[in-house]
Design a protein that fits this description.
Layout: H1 2-23, E1 35-41, E2 47-50, E3 62-67, E4 70-74, E5 80-83, E6 93-100, E7 107-108, E8 121-127, E9 131-137, E10 144-151, E11 154-162, E12 170-175, E13 181-190, E14 196-198, E15 202-206, E16 213-214, E17 217-218, E18 221-233, E19 239-249, E20 256-262, E21 265-271
Parallel strand pairs: 17-21
Antiparallel strand pairs: 1-6, 2-5, 2-7, 3-4, 3-6, 8-9, 9-12, 10-11, 10-13, 13-14, 13-15, 16-18, 18-19, 18-20, 20-21
């Protein structure tokens, strides 16, 4: 009699353990309990993830992170981490796989930054010697657009537009501000929620001559070979003076080393 009771108890315990094991591999919110998959396209921003402890509170939840089938992170020992996408091209397809332990689940904080706005379309994006022009379709009233130019190894906004909100094509024109050599431009569209979407990058080869300047040891002014936008920054990268013209006043600078950003180049000079 006692053996039968022991057998029943053992069978009941095994059934419970099997149920727990099966549940640990059940579906959750459309994702495997061990994988989170994100699909989209790079839109200029990285992905941020909260990384909780496991149930035993000894390890963090995430095991590995894959980007487009290549392992990019493993053995993550922090409660939050960033998935760097900055080496990708705008609108390049993105597949992220987060492999995690059972019994816990990392939380992706900004998955929307790789989701494309299927209604928004850029077209007729052209650049010539004097004009930048493009058209959009599917924009909404109240959203914004920015022309961005690649300057000093960064994308810099040079003009803001309010979206016209037309259901058909809306056209935009802006007077170009080329530097010498190869110029790169793109259009950034920002909706009311703050999500950003980008056009493809357009290039234009300018025939303008390179800008030179003198002197390299400055007392009062720097003189440019032709008028241009410029910035003076210190060794920490702080912008101290910016403007447009052929002459740059430097009287207020203290003695030391400074850098001149002009014509998409950074030049070093000394204030004496």
């Amino acid at each position: 009699m006692k053996k039968n009771n022991y057998f029943k108890a053992f069978t009941f315990l095994v059934a419970i353990l099997v149920t727990i094991f099966q549940n640990s591999f059940s579906k959750d919110d459309g994702f495997s309990s061990q994988n989170i998959i994100l699909n989209g396209a790079y839109q200029g921003k990285n992905i941020y993830v909260q990384n909780p402890f496991t149930v035993n509170m000894k390890d963090f939840c995430t095991d590995e992170v894959y980007l487009n089938n290549a392992k990019v992170m493993s053995q993550i020992k922090s409660s939050a981490y960033e998935i760097d996408l900055s080496h990708l091209s705008i609108n390049e397809p993105v597949t992220i796989k987060i492999v995690h332990k059972t019994g816990c689940k990392p939380k992706v904080l900004n998955a929307q930054v790789i989701r494309l706005n299927s209604n928004l379309q850029f077209s007729n994006f052209t650049i010539d010697n004097s004009i930048i022009q493009w058209s959009t379709k599917g924009e909404k009233l109240g959203d914004k657009m920015f022309i961005e130019q690649f300057l000093y190894n960064n994308w810099v906004s040079i003009k803001e537009f309010q979206a016209k909100g037309s259901s058909s094509n809306s056209s935009y024109t802006f007077e170009s501000i080329h530097h010498s050599g190869l110029n790169k431009y793109r259009i950034k569209y920002v909706d009311k929620d703050g999500s950003a979407f980008y056009s493809k990058i357009e290039e234009y080869q300018s025939i303008l001559p390179e800008i030179t300047f003198y002197p390299k040891r400055v007392s009062n002014k720097i003189y440019l070979s032709r008028g241009s936008d410029y910035e003076i920054v210190d060794e920490k990268g702080t912008v101290l003076n910016k403007g447009k013209g052929k002459e740059i006043p430097c009287e207020t600078l203290k003695e030391g080393v400074y850098y001149l950003n002009v014509d998409n180049k950074t030049e070093k000079f000394l204030k004496k």
